[in-house]
UniProtKB/TrEMBL annotation:
It holds the Pfam family TPP_enzyme_C. GO terms for molecular function: oxidoreductase activity, acting on the aldehyde or oxo group of donors, iron-sulfur protein as acceptor; thiamine pyrophosphate binding. It comes from Desulfatibacillum aliphaticivorans. One of its GO terms (biological process) is cellular respiration. This is 2-Oxoglutarate synthase (Beta subunit). InterPro entries: 2-oxoacid:Fd_oxidoreductase, THDP-binding, TPP_enzyme_TPP-bd. Coiled coil: none annotated.
Length: 267
């Protein structure tokens, strides 16, 4: 199938602000799916509420637009009932790690075969620019006019600690890298987390005086570096990109099938 076959053209132009990084994530996702050659009937996208969640409206897959923070819970039900499907869950700061934090931890702990794409723009964009668990100390927001004093979560470290078996990070600047990570995450048999740092020029960029979208995108190039690079040794403040975890452990749905067989007296 061609890339255009995976989108709902009737819903374009999209509702994201000019310069929003979420469109780049959609592009990378579609290219990954195209490379995999998946049928639209093999994919289910489950989203919650927020700027990031609107992605499910633009893809021509089976899709569920669900409750705020509960996307992974709905996705778990889909995957357990139809384990042969590729379940993709796009989330923002809140859906993933605020109201949805508990679901994130337990989906990772169970190692259920889904791909969680966490779009980290450090702000709640749709509801007015409030600070989030990913904003970090010193970040300005409508609910932190004198700067946030909350330390931010590290998405990668949380995913690793909770037991996710594929964990990667990239940025909206590194679109081809994002495509490769999403491609590999979908193929991975277990809970996959791909954090993508995206820009929000409307709220985060304006409040934090980071310039317009071009300046914010270039900043991702300047503040990140591949895992284990010499640059990281010279400047520990740089944020590492790459695949942090890739390991094989029993996948939850497969293990659940064994429970069903034992309950039937099969083993």
């Amino acid at each position: 199938m061609a890339l255009k076959d995976y989108i709902r053209e009737r819903f374009f132009p999209h509702m994201w602000c000019a310069g929003c990084g979420h469109g780049t994530v959609l592009n990378s996702l579609l290219r990954a799916v195209e490379q995999l050659g998946l049928s639209k009937n093999e994919i289910v996208m489950v989203s919650g509420i927020g700027c990031s969640a609107r992605i499910s409206g633009y893809v021509d897959f089976h899709s569920l637009h669900t409750l705020h923070g509960r996307a992974l819970a709905f996705a778990t039900g889909v995957k357990l009932s139809k384990p042969e499907l590729n379940v993709i869950v796009p989330m923002g700061d809140g859906d993933a790690l605020a109201i949805g934090g508990n679901h994130f931890l337990h989906a990772a702990r169970r190692n259920i075969g889904m791909t969680a794409i966490v779009m980290n723009n450090k702000i709640y964009g749709m509801t007015g620019g409030q600070f989030s668990p990913l904003t970090g100390v010193g970040g300005m927001a409508t609910t932190a006019p004198y700067a946030s004093i909350d330390r931010s979560f590290d998405v990668v470290e949380i995913a690793k600690a909770a037991g996710a078996t594929y964990v990667a990070r990239s940025t909206a600047f590194h679109a081809q890298e994002c495509t490769k990570m999403i491609h590999d995450a979908i193929l991975h048999d277990g809970f996959s987390v791909v954090e993508i740092m995206t820009q929000c020029p409307t709220y985060y960029g304006r409040k934090n005086k980071l310039g317009e979208a071009p300046e914010m995108i270039k900043r991702f190039k300047d503040i990140t570096t591949p895992i284990g690079s010499k640059a990281k040794q010279e400047n520990p403040e740089l944020i590492e990109r790459g695949v942090f975890v890739e390991k094989n452990l029993p996948e939850y749905c497969a293990e659940y099938d064994k429970i069903i067989e034992r309950a039937k007296g099969g083993a």
